[in-house]
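RECORD TYPE: inverse folding
INPUT: structure tokens
STRUCTURE:
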């Protein structure tokens, strides 16, 4: 039985608005394709734009307007072409399988991100190969499972971060991918107000992925920023080094969350989750903003705009303090507005669709 939604269906959105979203998708896709080829042929430019322009913007966008990202994500645009051209088998993914894939996604995130220090931050070809592999994985699972259920809502390593950071999104925007809701994922992360990593506890896999995402991410991020990029010949010792501090932080953070969780009722659990979400994204910008402006911890940090000889150090400290204050206000102290990331489209008539 379909769950009623308080948001307006996509059918109420004007064709002009949808055209604008399609144009935005095309622009972002073309920019991403340009970055991909730059990683191969002009790696310095490709790495700079990817890791020091696009990626630093992403967490803030997820916090404030995750639906915008969900609409224009170039990987989603590519993966969903399989469904749009009616090449998918359109299988319904079971809740248990989806929970398993979501657990795989958060584990993959913790395995992949440290490799930035090991190779991806400095090797354009390796980064391009990795991005291509994610496209192949997303398209492959899209041939089997319907709409976003296979990749965007399950196996994508970014999805756990979306659910953690975007639990109190600023507003819902029209769904530029799904013209009809086929209930491919239950609950649908796009259409469920104030969804977070522990919203679904149907299986032990859901509970475990929620614990790893909420509890582990703040400490993992903290530890990650104390590891420098390796610019020489990587060795097995270096590979161990890029995981040591992030995973130590992950373990401490998880232990703290697990310990505090016992003192929160199910009704108040969201408060604790909000604090950990704010801690994670705040920690990211606490270190990332100074590094981008030439005030980083390591000389190997790639600088987007070197202002170390122009701005006093205290101005950077004020900036990160203001950023932290805003993020804690937005995620913790601002009243939940009961909005979803995207407006839910009208439900598909399953009999007419041949289901």
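DESIGNED SEQUENCE:
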């Amino acid at each position: 039985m379909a769950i009623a939604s308080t948001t307006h269906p996509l059918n109420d959105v004007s064709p002009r608005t949808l055209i604008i979203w399609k144009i935005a998708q095309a622009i972002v896709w073309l920019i991403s394709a340009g970055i991909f080829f730059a990683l191969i042929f002009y790696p310095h430019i490709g790495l700079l734009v990817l890791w020091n322009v696009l990626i630093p913007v992403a967490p803030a966008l997820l916090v404030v307007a995750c639906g915008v990202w969900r609409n224009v994500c170039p990987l989603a645009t590519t993966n969903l072409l399989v469904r749009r051209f009616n090449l998918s088998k359109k299988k319904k993914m079971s809740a248990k399988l989806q929970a398993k894939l979501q657990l795989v996604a958060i584990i993959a995130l913790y395995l992949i991100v440290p490799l930035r220090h090991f190779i991806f931050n400095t090797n354009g070809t390796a980064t391009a190969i990795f991005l291509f592999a994610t496209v192949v994985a997303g398209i492959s699972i899209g041939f089997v499972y319907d709409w976003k259920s296979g990749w965007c809502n399950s196996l994508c390593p970014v999805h756990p971060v979306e659910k953690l950071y975007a639990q109190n999104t600023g507003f819902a925007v029209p769904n530029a991918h799904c013209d009809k809701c086929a209930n491919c994922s239950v609950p649908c992360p796009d259409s469920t107000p104030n969804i977070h990593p522990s919203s679904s506890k149907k299986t032990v896999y859901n509970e475990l992925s929620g614990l790893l995402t909420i509890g582990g991410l703040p400490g993992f991020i903290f530890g990650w920023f104390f590891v420098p990029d390796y610019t020489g010949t990587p060795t097995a010792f270096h590979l161990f080094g890029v995981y040591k501090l992030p995973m130590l932080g992950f373990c401490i953070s998880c232990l703290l969350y697990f310990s505090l969780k016992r003192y929160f009722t199910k009704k108040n659990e969201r408060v604790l989750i909000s604090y950990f979400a704010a801690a994670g994204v705040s920690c990211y910008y606490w270190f990332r903003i100074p590094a981008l402006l030439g005030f980083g911890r390591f000389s190997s940090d790639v600088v987007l705009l070197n202002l170390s000889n122009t701005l006093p150090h205290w101005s950077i400290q004020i900036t990160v303090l203001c950023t932290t204050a805003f993020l804690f206000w937005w995620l913790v102290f601002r009243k939940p507005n009961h909005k979803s990331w995207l407006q839910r489209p009208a439900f598909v008539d399953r009999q007419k669709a041949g289901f």
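NOTES: DSSP finds 13 helices and no strands in the chain.
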